[in-house]
Design goal:
Blueprint (H helix, E strand, L loop, with lengths): L2 E7 L4 E7 L5 E8 L4 E7 H10 L2 H11 L17 E2 L2 H17 L2
Antiparallel strand pairs: 1-2, 1-5, 2-3, 3-4
């Protein structure tokens, strides 16, 4: 079952939003920083796997500079993180679209 949730890293003033698959791995990952909620990451597992299988390291590097690095490993235990909460798919999609638009415009 897909889960959408958020956590917060107070030291970095960073909100992390995840779409996780039924095994608890990140499918998509958005990070926003600061009071203005400036997007810094909007990475997708499908895109990363496609680039890994069909592109070169330079292309992967450009992707990571533009969209950040997808969270790796299981996200189990996220409920124990500060300000952790499930969010709706609609909220995640709204954040995803806004982050992608901002990151696309910055390059």
């Amino acid at each position: 079952m897909t889960t959408w949730f958020r956590t917060y890293y107070e030291d970095e003033d960073l909100w992390l939003y995840f779409e996780a698959d039924d095994e608890g791995w990140a499918v998509r990952h958005v990070e926003v920083r600061g009071a203005g909620s400036r997007p810094v990451t909007a990475a997708s597992l499908a895109e990363v796997l496609h680039l890994r299988d069909h592109a070169d390291l330079a292309t992967m590097g450009r992707y990571e500079r533009k969209y950040g690095v997808l969270a790796e490993g299981s996200l189990d235990g996220w409920r124990d993180r500060p300000h952790a909460a499930e969010i709706s798919v609609e909220e995640f999609e709204h954040l995803w679209a806004g982050a992608r638009q901002t990151l696309d415009a910055s390059c």
